[in-house]
Amino acid sequence: MAKSTRRPQQIYAIVMWALSLVFAGILMGLGSLIIKDLPRVDKTVTVEQFVDAGTLSKIENRIESSEREARLLTRNTEDANSNYMSAAADYQSARASLENWRAARTATEAADQNPQVITRTKAVEALRDKERQALRVFEDAKGAQIEASRAASDLRNERAAVIKAAQPQFRKAQKAQEFKVFLYRLALTLPLLVIAGWLAMKKRDSAYWPLHRGFILFALFAFFVELVPYLPSYGGYVRYTVGLILVLIAGHFIIRAMRNYLARKQLEESRSEGERRQSIEYETALKKIAAKTCPGCDRAIVARDDVETDFCVHCGIRLKEKCGSCGERNISFHRFCLCCGETTNSGHQSQTPQNQAPA
Ligand SMILES: [Zn+2]
Ligand SMILES: [Zn+2]
Description:
Layout: H1 7-37, H2 53-106, H3 115-202, H4 209-227, H5 237-269, H6 273-279, H7 282-290, E1 303-304, E2 307-308, E3 320-322, E4 329-331, H8 345-351
Antiparallel strand pairs: 1-2, 3-4
Helix pairs in contact: 1-4, 2-3, 3-4
The structure holds zinc ion (2 copies).
One zinc ion (ZN) is lined by residues 323, 325-326, 328, 337, 339-340, 342.
């Protein structure tokens, strides 16, 4: 069966869908910009806010001074170490040269009491004492440095413990903050969803439906993409509650729509066949017949020996009729005979609806 919609109408439908999508896209961009800026309404919560400021700053000052001390002591240790190294080198070289000198002397004269020997030995001993002293200074500095860095690390541990103690309070405040942001988002997106629902129910036949449709797409996006991921969890209670409410609302409207539809169909079927056939829109009727559905009662059209029946066996509406002029079998909703081009019964009806043709 040929499509009944006029070609410009088909293009118009596509263009209008594009318009809906573009409109929705612009609204989405604007909406997500607004929603992203929302958390800035409040200042961010930090764990430091839940620690006594005096205690924390006292500990931090102590950490800073003990770290400064440790740095100073490290420098001292390095200095003492280099002093010690040079003292050790002085002593070693003095001792070696004394030994060489002595070995050279032993070969000629054996006089250990020689005052020159005594003087030189004493000088070497003085260097050895100096080396030992430098070593002691170095060890003391090293010990002090280790002590200071331990003190700093103890203080850091103390700070961590203070912050850890504040964690439960911090987390509670964080959750409260998240919930607040969620409520802001809900306050923005829920009215959009309500307006979208109203538009979907009331404005389907409006000339501005493509724009309304764009708004509905935007509202759905804002609610289900922008808001739902931010639902606070609380063990899933909020999510399931929102899900439940949505299912109940959807169920309510679907059931109501179905009942209305059935009531409407029952009312329609109580009217005369001609009235009913006339009340069905031309495009809708052709679309439904193409889908092998009765345009009167929406039930399947029955075929006998692969030929569709002239009447709907469920509601009695006329589906096919013979042309008055050439006898060709036409779809009863066509306005002109497909064979001779003569105006059909329904053609007469659509032109002069008050002039009811017999069924
Ligand atoms: Zn029917
Ligand atoms: Zn004909």
